[in-house]
Each structure stands twice: as C-alpha cells, then as structure tokens.
C-alpha cells in the first residue's frame, strides 16, 4: 500500500480540444490521483476548450499552431513559479510531449522531486509523420529531442509504458535502468464494461442479424487499419454476414475510405468519424470481435501499451491484434485474444474468422480479459503505482 503524498503538480502539453488517447490518459490519471491526494493539472488554455474538468489550471497561450507551444512554455514557467512559491508540491509529474524544458529546470532550482512519463520517442514519431519534411516540423523535432535528453537526465524517475520503451531509453539516453519504472496504461472499468449487445446495436442503428468487427482509435498510419481492409475480402468469403466498424478520425480516414472502395468492400464498412468518449463503449459492445492491427514500424521497436486494447478487454470483447511487444504480452497474460504477425491480411482474417465462428471461445476470452484488466490495469491501480513512486522520491 502506498504512503501518503500530500500534493502533486501534473504538467501536460497537449490541448483538450479533442478526445485523444493522451488526453484520456492524463484526465483519468488526474481523477484517480485525486482520490488519494491534492492534485493540480497545468494544461494549455486554448480556444474551444470546454472547461468542465475540476482540478485543471488552464495556462493562456497564443492560438497559432506555430506559437502555441513556445507561448505555453513561457507562460507555464510563470504559472509554475507562482504556484511553487504559494504551495510547493511534493512531486511534479510531467508527461513528455512537445518540447518541455522549464518544468524540470524549476524542479532542479526548487529541489522538487520530479517524474517524467514517456509514451514514445520523437524519432519514431518522425518516421511515420506526413509532415516530417517541413521546416517547422524539423525545428520542433530538434527541440523535442533536446528536451527528451534534458528531462530524462535531470528528473528523479521515469515512467515508461512498456518494457521495450524502457530498454530504448536506457540505450539512447544512457539512463540508469533502475531510474525507469514500467507502468502500463489502463482502462476506466466503470465506463468500459459489458453491455447488452442488442440494446446498444438498437441505439446505434446497427443490424442485429450481422456480426461486427470493430476498430477504435485515431486513424494514423501506425494503427494499420488498412490491413483490416485488405483482410476483409478473406473474412467475407468465410463469413458473409460480417460488417466492419471503424470508430475514430484522423489524417488517414480519406485514404482508408479510398482503399476500401478500391478493394470493393466499402459498403461493408462504417466509418463513424469522431464520436464522444462516452459512446465508445457502446461501439465496442456492439461488436463481436475487436481488432488492433498495428504495423511493425514505430511499434515493434518500443512496444505498445495501447488504450484501446485495455478498453476492449474491459468491455469483455475478444481481441485480434498484431504480434507487437506489449500487446502480445497483454493477450498472453489475460487470455483475452489472439496475436497475429503484423501486416499479413490473411493471418488477420483467419484469426477473426476463428473467433466469429465460435461464440463460446469469444465469451470465454471476453470473461478472462475483463477479469484481468480489473485486477491489473484499472486507472485506480495505475494511480496507486505512481503514488508509490512519488513516496520513494520525496
């Protein structure tokens, strides 16, 4: 059981104008830490944000895509300096994103213990970004790489979401292995839970006579949704009553629709676009099988602790996912799904058909998966692990 930690500052660099996975992560962390201690979350106060989250200090920024981050870094230093003088935190917890320097620098000056959470590496993001050749992106990347080196060197602990990411941090930045603690992502098991399938299908106006395969997430290149589309003809050949739900939005959406059209399966797919976070569990529960067909690039190097996989399992749904470190480990430990080689549509199709064809297997996997997530990967459990680290360094 963790010891008492009196107050924590969370520092975040992304905008709350969208419901991204990183936003869900930080808000779940905020809400669950608040059960046990006083927490203030510092975040950019951009236009269009619904300021409905308690415990958030919105820092004013210049609403220009090139100036948001530099202006936030400057104003954040003022807000943090004032907050530290008024009510010095016992720990500052920073989610590494963009190019933060000043929060950890202030911690050094005020001798405040600090933790940096790492979910990925800048150089890997560059390899799959369509903007990677632009001048602005190169400047951003240069600053972000320097920020990573500075923060990982001078913080007290690093939280990595996968074992392989920890290995890369140790290798690339000469970080002592004992400084890096692995804490996987989690799921809100109160929101993501089994629901009556017929009722949610009726609400979503889905055909109850069909079987549904569902993907949830940001439509980015590294998600590999195109391989689900390429697998669709093989799945439909064996199971003609299958339909596909792609829940989410992103830069790849138009390209994916084009691929589905060229493959001749567009009428079998529903691309929902962005849906409210509260509606995501309904789409998952409407499905018979959920998929996470991640590609090898970017993912195999550092592993994955993908929110969607925990949320699928929390809803009691079996998963077919790429054999990527972190994801495969989760499926093996939970018994909640099947891992397949990434980027091979035939193998993906065979696994989906295997589950679609046997409700008993689906039910058994779903029950095992939910039980495992409740016991090991609720956001409450994640918060407790972080509080243990906080107590070690204060």
Automatic annotation (TrEMBL):
Q: What is its EC number?
A: 2.4.1.-
One Pfam family, short name please? Glycos_transf_1
User: Which keywords appear in this protein's UniProt record, sorted alphabetically?
Assistant: Glycosyltransferase, Transferase
Please list the GO terms describing molecular function. Answer: hexosyltransferase activity
Keyword Ligase attributed = no
Q: Which InterPro entries match?
A: Glyco_trans_1, Glyco_trans_4-like_N, Glycosyltransferase_grp1
Question: Which residue numbers delimit the Glycosyl transferase family domain?
Answer: 197-371
Q: Where do the coiled-coil regions begin and end?
A: none
Annotated Glycosyltransferase subfamily 4-like N-terminal domain ranges read 21-190
Know the name of this protein?
A: Glycosyltransferase
């Amino acid at each position: 059981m963790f010891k008492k930690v009196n107050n924590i500052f969370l520092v975040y660099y992304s905008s709350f104008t969208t419901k991204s996975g990183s936003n869900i992560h930080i808000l779940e962390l905020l809400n669950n830490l608040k059960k046990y201690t006083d927490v203030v979350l510092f975040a950019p106060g951009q236009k269009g944000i619904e300021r409905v989250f308690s415990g958030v200090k919105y820092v004013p920024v210049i609403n220009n895509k090139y100036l948001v981050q530099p202006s936030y870094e400057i104003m954040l230093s003022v807000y943090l300096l004032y907050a530290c003088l008024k009510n010095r935190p016992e720990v500052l917890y920073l989610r590494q994103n963009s190019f933060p320097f000043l929060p950890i620098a202030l911690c050094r000056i005020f001798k405040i213990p600090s933790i940096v959470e790492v979910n990925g590496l800048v150089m890997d993001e560059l390899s799959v970004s369509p903007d990677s050749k632009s001048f602005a992106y190169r400047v951003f990347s240069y600053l972000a790489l320097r920020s990573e080196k500075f923060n990982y060197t001078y913080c007290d602990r690093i939280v990595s979401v996968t074992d392989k990411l920890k290995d890369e941090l140790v290798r690339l930045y000469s970080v002592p292995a004992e400084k890096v603690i692995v804490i996987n992502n989690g799921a809100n098991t109160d929101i993501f839970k089994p629901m009556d399938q017929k009722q949610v299908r009726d609400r979503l106006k889905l055909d109850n006579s069909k079987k549904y395969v569902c993907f949830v997430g940001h439509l980015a290149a590294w998600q590999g949704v195109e391989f689900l589309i390429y697998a669709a003809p093989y799945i439909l050949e064996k199971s003609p009553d299958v339909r596909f739900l792609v829940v989410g939005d992103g830069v790849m959406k138009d390209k994916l629709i084009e691929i589905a059209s060229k493959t001749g399966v567009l009428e079998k797919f529903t691309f929902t676009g962005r849906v409210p976070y509260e509606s995501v569990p309904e789409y998952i529960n409407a499905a018979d099988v959920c998929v996470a067909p991640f590609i090898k690039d970017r993912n195999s190097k550092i592993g994955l602790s993908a929110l969607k996989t925990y949320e699928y399992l929390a809803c009691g749904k079996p998963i077919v996912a790429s054999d990527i470190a972190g994801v495969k480990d989760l499926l093996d430990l939970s018994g909640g799904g099947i891992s397949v080689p990434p980027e091979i549509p035939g193998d993906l199709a065979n696994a989906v058909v295997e589950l679609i064809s046997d409700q008993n297997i689906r039910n058994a996997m779903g029950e095992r998966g939910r039980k495992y997530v409740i016991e090991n990967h609720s956001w409450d459990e994640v918060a407790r692990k972080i509080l243990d680290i906080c107590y070690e360094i204060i």
